[in-house]
Design brief:
The chain has 289 residues and is an alpha+beta fold. The two termini are 26 Å apart. Strand 8 and strand 9 form a beta hairpin. The strands form two sheets. A five-stranded mixed β-sheet has the order 2-1-3-8-9. Strands 4-7-5-6 form a four-stranded mixed β-sheet. Helix 1 crosses helix 4 and helix 6 packs parallel to helix 8. The chain contains eight helices and nine strands.
C-alpha cells in the first residue's frame, strides 16, 4: 500500500528537480539551437541560459525567479489502495517545497490579490486525476510561470475551419507573444473536445518529451509545419532575433460537437519545467528529470 509519507516526499522531490534541473531532451534541443545559431545576440543568450542552468543545478536553486504554479496529472490504477487525501497531500508537498527549495510565493487570491505564503489555496495546486486499469501509479508535474501563461490562448473557432486556420492562429499567438514568453518556447495545442478539455489537452501536451514523435501521422505533420513556420518568424531566444523561436510543437485532439471547434494554445518557456514519477519495482520513484 502506498503511504502518505512516501507519496508526499516523492512529490516534493519532483518539484525540487523540476525547479532546478532541465529535462535532458530540452537541454539537447537548446544545444542544437545554439550550434546552428549565427546571430551574436542570440548566441549570447544561449550562453547565459547554459550558465544559468549550471548554477541552478550546482547550487540547488530554481532556474528562474518565477517559480510558477503547479499542475499535477495523476494516473491512478483502480487496484491501487490509497489511505490518504490525495489532494491534501499534494498541497502539503507544495507547501514543503516552497519552504525547502525555496520557491517564490506566487499564489494570490484572484480578486483581493492577497498572497498565499505557502503557494496553495483554492484550486492550487491544480490536480487532474485519471483512473486506469490495474495497479499502476504515475504522477506528472507541469510548472508554468506567468510569462507563458499570460501568452496562452483559447479560441472557439468556426466548425468549418481546418488545419490551415489553426496554423495561422498558432503563428499569430507566437508572433504576438514576442519575447514575453521567454522563447525559445514549446507550444502545446489542444484541438477539439470542449472549452475546458481543449485547454487541458494543450497543457498536457507540454509534458511530452521533445524527442518523442506524435503517434498520429496527421498531427505529426501539422506539428512539423507549424514549427517550421514559427521559426521562420525569426523571433529568436528572448525575442531579440535568431533562428530558433520554437523548440517543439505538441498537439493533442479530442472529438467535439458538430457545431464547435475549441482550440487552445499553451506556451512553455525555455526551461520547460516538468517532472515524472512512476512505480519502479513496486516503489514510487522520480524518473524525470
Amino acid at each position: 500500500m502506498m503511504t502518505e509519507t512516501v507519496f508526499r516526499d516523492v512529490a516534493v522531490e519532483m518539484i525540487r528537480r523540476a525547479e532546478t534541473k532541465l529535462p535532458k531532451d530540452v537541454l539537447a534541443a537548446l544545444k542544437r539551437a545554439w550550434k546552428k545559431e549565427r546571430d551574436p545576440i542570440a548566441r549570447f543568450h544561449y550562453r547565459m541560459m547554459f550558465r544559468n542552468l549550471q548554477l541552478a543545478q550546482g547550487l540547488g536553486v530554481p532556474i528562474c525567479q518565477d517559480t510558477g504554479v503547479f499542475t499535477f496529472f495523476v494516473k491512478l490504477g483502480r487496484e491501487v489502495k490509497l489511505s490518504f487525501d490525495l489532494e491534501g497531500t499534494l498541497a502539503e508537498a507544495v507547501e514543503i517545497a516552497t519552504q525547502e527549495v525555496p520557491l517564490r510565493a506566487n499564489v494570490v487570491d484572484p480578486l483581493t490579490r492577497k498572497p498565499s505564503p505557502t503557494n496553495t489555496g483554492r484550486g492550487q495546486p491544480a490536480i487532474h486525476l485519471e483512473l486506469t486499469p490495474g495497479d499502476d501509479l504515475e504522477l506528472e508535474l507541469l510548472v508554468k510561470g506567468a510569462g507563458t501563461e499570460n501568452c496562452s490562448r483559447l479560441f472557439m473557432m468556426r466548425p468549418t475551419e481546418r488545419a490551415e486556420a489553426i496554423e495561422r492562429a498558432v503563428l499569430k499567438t507566437i508572433e504576438e507573444s514576442g519575447g514575453k514568453s521567454c522563447p525559445p518556447n514549446i507550444i502545446g495545442v489542444g484541438i477539439g473536445g470542449s472549452m475546458e478539455t481543449a485547454a487541458l489537452m494543450a497543457k498536457h501536451a507540454l509534458l511530452r518529451p521533445l524527442n518523442r514523435k506524435n503517434p498520429d501521422p496527421e498531427l505529426a505533420e501539422l506539428e512539423h509545419r507549424i514549427k517550421l513556420a514559427a521559426n521562420n518568424l525569426k523571433i529568436g531566444p528572448m525575442g531579440l532575433s535568431g533562428e530558433t523561436t520554437i523548440l517543439g510543437v505538441h498537439i493533442e485532439k479530442a472529438a467535439c460537437h458538430t457545431a464547435s471547434l475549441p482550440v487552445a494554445f499553451a506556451l512553455q518557456c525555455w526551461p520547460a519545467r516538468r517532472a515524472k514519477a512512476t512505480r519502479v519495482d513496486g516503489e514510487l520513484r522520480v524518473v524525470e528529470p
